[in-house]
Write a structure and sequence with these properties.
The complex is a heterodimer of chains A (267) and B (253). Chain A contains 8 helices and 4 strands. Chain A is mostly helical and 267 residues long. The longest helix of chain A has 24 residues, at 235-258. The chains are: A mainly alpha (267), B alpha+beta (253).
Chain lengths: 267, 253
């Protein structure tokens, strides 16, 4: 039985959409960037090497929590031992990546990005989707998206750790403080973009003041809410910049690990 | 300066219909609704079109122009290239009555399912006072002109007719949000009914409602997502739920 725009009673129009603009470009770019990131991040997590070049650590491996971690890379100790999966040692990246991945998967902006681009639900506004049925976020697994706030809180812990990593990058390879390199700038920018992404989050906006009914009774929370609301309008920008920069930070640390001269010291 | 415009206008009813080609003159500064009126006056005397204010404030002339949900009175002819054929169809999420006129009664039925604000007991008319910061938030939602372009573009019902019974749509989520954020509203089950009766959980945040809103209301960011977070407070966040039971936070907020 016909449904959607072909339902009984609606205007009889054969095309799924009559849009004449290039509506498919945006989802195509989104798929390209997100797919590239997924492939790169998976490869790097599986590689399980070249993630630490003192004092720089890749954000994909921080905090490094396994006894398999390279010496000096474990800020919080090594509570996890050798974990074997199908006879292979589990990369320490897989122990932690579920949390930032969960934060982004449940993010209100990324929901728009992947529902449009990957699931085509819908691919663009007023372009009919290909699915026969739709239940949205009312059933498993997508109902998990309602727990975005928990990933947000865990994300704050990661931001803190990555900020510490950035400050540790003010050391030189011999462990002496008071130095600054290209790697310091890369990791500082990484932490800044991630804080921007978290601070502009919709769950953050709600927790700061969005849940209030009386703004006038809570002037400080109202003020904070207005600041977060301004950041919130840039959430999409922070989402992309922080995603791309976290991959670049990892790439930079990998290259420094292979070629230490890449990390030029300013002083 | 006049230009010759090529149009394709959908004509028909709920049983049959199709696109008909028309060529018509367009003057500088005219909008699509002007052109439709010229076609009506000179070539298609029985062309049905719903319109009223011609100023983007009544929400009557909602239709789809080159596949995009728009107000015909706010769509400049000059925004289309000279050689482009402009295709005009009725809204595709609702049953068509005739030509460009659709039956949008679905929306009025959904509107009736939302209880109005419930003021505190004993408060008399003229007594309520609100601070400006509390008023501003819901004023954005009061800009809605009920053109139903957001309802029309929402894929939950546009692409799935069967969801209409359990999904109210973005226009009514801003209404529910407005009431739930009202400092004096005493009805405490709006979050529960938003999720369970009005189908808030169907929304997957693809933001098409915001994209087409002629009043530029941030429907998704300022109404739907805040409502989803409020629902999460009650339904999906055990820590918040426990806190609300112990400290009766609802009264504090």
């Amino acid at each position: 039985m016909a449904t959607g725009v072909f339902s009984e009673g609606r205007a009889k129009i054969a095309q799924r959409t009559l849009r004449t603009d290039k509506w498919w470009i945006q989802p195509l770019i989104t798929v390209g960037v997100l797919f590239s990131f997924i492939v790169y991040a998976t490869w790097r997590a599986l590689e399980n090497a070249h993630y630490y070049a003192e004092p720089l650590i890749s954000p994909f491996y921080s905090p490094c929590l396994s006894t398999t971690c390279v010496s000096g890379s474990s800020l919080l100790g090594t509570p996890f031992g050798h974990i074997l999966i199908f006879g292979m040692v589990l990369s320490p990246a897989f122990i932690i990546l579920i949390f930032p991945l969960g934060f982004r998967m449940t993010c209100y902006y990324y929901r728009k990005a992947y529902f449009r681009s990957f699931w085509m639900s819908p691919p663009a506004c007023a372009v009919a989707e290909p699915h026969a049925k739709y239940t949205g976020e009312t059933k498993a697994p997508l109902i998990v998206n309602n727990g975005h706030r928990y990933f947000f809180y865990i994300g704050l812990v990661f931001n803190t750790l990555l900020t510490i990593d950035a400050f540790l990058a003010f050391k030189n390879p011999e462990g002496q403080w008071g130095h600054m390199s290209l790697g310091t700038v890369v990791l500082l920018l990484n932490a800044t973009f991630l804080w921007g992404y978290s601070a502009s989050c919709h769950s953050c906006r709600h927790a700061i003041g969005g849940r209030l009914r009386h703004f006038s009774k809570h002037p400080f929370r109202y003020k904070a809410w207005t600041i977060v609301s301004k950041l919130n309008t840039k959430h999409q920008n922070f989402a992309w910049v922080s995603l791309i920069w976290v991959a670049f930070s990892d790439f930079f640390v990998r290259m420094v690990s292979l070629h230490p001269t890449w990390n030029k010291y300013f002083f | 300066m006049a230009r010759t415009l090529k149009l394709r206008i959908w004509r028909g009813d709920d049983k049959t219909g199709g696109l008909q080609d028309v060529t018509v003159e367009a003057n500088h500064g005219e909008v699509v609704l002007d052109i439709i009126h010229r076609v009506q006056a000179t070539q298609m005397g029985d062309l049905a079109v719903r319109w009223n204010c011609k100023a983007g404030k009544c929400g009557s002339c909602s239709m789809e122009i080159n596949g995009k949900p728009r107000l015909a009175c706010m769509t400049q002819v000059a925004s289309y290239p000279e050689d482009e054929v402009i295709t005009i169809t009725p809204l595709r999420a609702f049953p068509v009555i005739k030509d460009l006129v659709t039956d949008v009664s679905f929306n009025y039925k959904k509107a009736m399912e939302i209880p109005a604000v419930v003021m505190p007991e004993g408060m008399k008319p003229g007594e309520p006072r609100m601070q400006q910061v509390d008023v501003e938030r819901s004023q954005e939602f009061r800009k809605c002109i009920e053109c139903f372009l957001c309802q029309n573009t929402c894929h939950v019902i546009r692409d799935h007719e069967e969801n209409k019974k359990s999904f109210s749509g973005p226009r009514f989520f801003i209404r529910i949000a407005e009431l739930d954020m009202h400092p004096l509203d005493m009805l405490r089950n709006r979050k529960k009914t938003a999720q369970e009766e009005h189908g808030l959980g169907f929304c997957n945040i693809t933001k098409c409602c915001t994209e087409v809103c002629p009043e530029h209301i941030k429907i998704t960011d300022n109404a739907i997502i805040p409502m989803k977070e409020r629902v999460a407070d009650e339904k999906y966040d055990p820590v918040r739920w426990l806190g609300s039971k112990i400290r009766r936070r609802e009264e504090v907020l």
